[in-house]
Amino acid sequence: MRKRTVILCLTAVAAVVALYRAPLGHAEAAAAPSGNAASMTPVQAADAAAKGTLKNPYKDTDTAVVAAGQQLYLNYGCNGCHGGTGGGGMCPPLTNDVWVYGGDDDTLFRLVAYGSQILQSKGYSRKQQENVVGPMPQMGMVVKTADDLWRILAFVRANYHGAPECKFGCPPEQ
Ligand code: HEC
Asked: Which of 93, 90, 70 is nearest to 153 (CA)?
């Protein structure tokens, strides 16, 4: 059962990568860095910020932002792998207290922007393991702006159901 889930997740990753491969070049070429973080692509915003400094400008208590974030999450197809409310589907849940690379804003933004393979090449390492293990595709080539990604992440935070102290990553054990 578990093995089957992993295979489904990997198939989904391959499909998404193939689906977005063609339009990617355009998206990349069209968006020049503007200095305005909100209108940068997620990859540009991640490249421009020092490790550990990216922070969500939105609060997950802002219901208008969370609703917009949910719509974007669906529009960009995150639900195809993570389920409609992020509770997991073929791929890992986003709502529990297991954070594969860390649960802080900076790490989550970079994971979605770069995908798990580029993220690891930049010195981030796997800390925890979900039931389903597979590569997260580079959704930063699909999500248009950093602002869109922050709103999506506000929606993900609003759906968090894990232990309260682990919402942004569990505190180190004493
Ligand atoms: C093709 C399937 C797929 C799609 C589409 C996808 N993801 Fe993922 N995502 C994954 C996989 C697989 C992982 C686990 C990565 C790993 O273990 O290295 C993951 C991990 C994550 C994590 C970290 C979860 C944790 O527990 O630490 C977040 C947050 C996330 N994805 C958000 C998103 C968002 C937001 C989108 C849409 C913009 C998205 N994902 C689209 C497959 C997908």
From this structure: 70
- What's the 92 CA to ligand 1 centre distance in angstroms? 7
Would you give the distance in Å from CA 105 to the centre of its chain? 10
Ligand 1 pocket at CB < 6 A: 9, 12-13, 16, 76-78, 80-82, 91-92, 94, 98-100, 108, 111-112, 116, 130, 133-137, 139, 143, 152, 156
The pLDDT tens digits for 101-158 are 999 999 999 999 999 999 999 999 998 888 777 899 999 999 999 999 999 999 999 9
Place of tokens 């305005």: 36
The angle that helices 105-121 and 146-158 make with each other, rounded to 10 degrees, is: 120
Q: Which one is the CATH code of 2-166: 1.10.10.10, 3.10.580.10, 1.10.10.60, 1.10.760.10?
A: 1.10.760.10
Tokens of 48: 């421009």
Task: Quick: pLDDT tens for 57-102.
Answer: 999 999 999 999 999 999 999 999 999 999 988 899 999 999 999 9
Q: How far is the CA of 68 from the centre of ligand 1 (A)?
A: 19
The model's pTM: 0.88
Residue 94 has φ and ψ, to the nearest 5°, of: -105, 0
